Amino acid sequence: xxxxxxxAPSPTGMMHIGTLRTALFDYFxxxxxxxxxxxxxxxxxxxxxxxGAVENLLxxxxxxxxxxxxxxxxxxxxxxxxxxxxxxxxxxxxLDLYKKYSDELVAKGFAYPCFCSSERLDEMRKxxxxxxxxxxxxxxCLSLTAADAxxxxxxxESYVIRLKVPEGKTxxxxxxxxxxxxxxxxxDDCILMKSDGFPTYFLAMVVDDHFMNISHxxxxxxxxxxxxxxxxxxxxxxxxxxxxxxxPLILSPDKKKLSKRTGDTAVEIYFKHGYLAEALVNFIGxxxxxxxxxxxxxxxxxxxxxxxxxxxxxxxxxxxxxxxxWMNKQYLMALGMDDIALRAAPFxxxxxxxxxxxxxxxxxxxxxxxTxxxxxxxxxxxxxxxxPAILVxxxxxxxxxxxxxxxxxxxxxxxxxxxxxxxxLLESAVKExxxxxxxxxxxxxxxxxxxxxxxxxxATPFETLWVLGKETSLERLRHAxxxxxx
Length: 486
Known about the structure:
The protein is mainly α. The protein has helices at residues 17-31, 53-63, 95-107, 118-130, 146-154, 201-211, 227-237, 267-272, 277-284, 300-306, 321-333, 337-344, 354-363, 373-381, 398-414, 423-437, 441-453, 461-468, 470-485; strands at residues 4-7, 36-41, 89-90, 111-114, 160-163, 169-174, 178-183, 191-193, 216-220, 243-247, 250-251, 317-318. The strands form 5 sheets. It has a 3-stranded parallel sheet with strand order 1-2-3. A 3-stranded antiparallel sheet has the order 4-5-8. Strands 6-7 form a two-stranded antiparallel sheet. The protein starts with a strand and ends with a helix.
């Protein structure tokens, strides 16, 4: 089987992380077999479309380095053209195709026109709710003759086209949830074509999936109940039914359905919070699926190679932000100096000098997100006022701290630029001095580190020496000695 998957979002706002997870699973499944991943914009509900939503979707795909295949070109018979394009398919550009197949269903007796007003439908539903019945259309217009319906249409009366759900059951094997059965008594005669000439999701999805040769339909579990309508229509047309896989919900940390009130739901927000694309793909791409029980970090190629729908959990996947922070930190720590400077630049207010680049490189192991770098840089850019008492090692006194710093001043004065070119060379020089003089590490390194950083908790003194450079390091040591003698 040639695997062809699709992501079919409605353009109703910023890209949701649930949409990203579906897209990643679609992408993994298609690419592991050399298949195709297609984007289709389902904009048939024009009233819900939000300007800029499609652009945001495509920007987020570019941000996570996910590309889609094919373009929006079809032959006259609805089959896919050989011509390619970068743009996604857009349903509002294909209205004639949907009308053709809506008309076919009506002609075959599988669908019918409905003239019921919205007021009548509201009253009908209220009555069904009061009687604790399943809310679905009562089929009043099904009794109309073809001649009566045609006459009302020709007179200009507003109408929709509804699916005529047959008696019986629909059974299918969900790739995640297993065998699923729906009794048709519970399935509504849904609207296929609206009065404005636009199809609903139900018809457009079936027509598009057929002509795009979609082999697998991955979507959220909230769509399980609509699957019988799709399968019924596939069978009515005599078309092959794709494999359905309904993904579990993404849950907030309190294990409730994720919403804007309980957490960030838009992918764009995570980038604004300083998460790397690689970390976000790793995190979202393993929500409800983990290729290995003893690993957490995977490249996208590893996720593609190991993806298996049968191993996707059917239960909800909890959005663990602590895990995301940890994962992002692992990716930050793996970046080189130039790369970390490039990624951090939009998040820091300081000019990207050599000192800033070195500080970013050192601090990348001490932060979890890019947004934390601005605060982390401050001790390197300007020495903040501090209490001289914190310069004293717990097993020493102020006199000893002062003496050790004066010795460090003398040592650092002698170190060459070559030694200052690498952290390990600075560490070797200082530790050789400690060993040679028979000193204790704490007595020397504690006041040295605090004098350089102005903080009780900071990077190692060797890292800070390397970041600041020789002259600034000497200046800060002199300041500390002066403070202790005051």
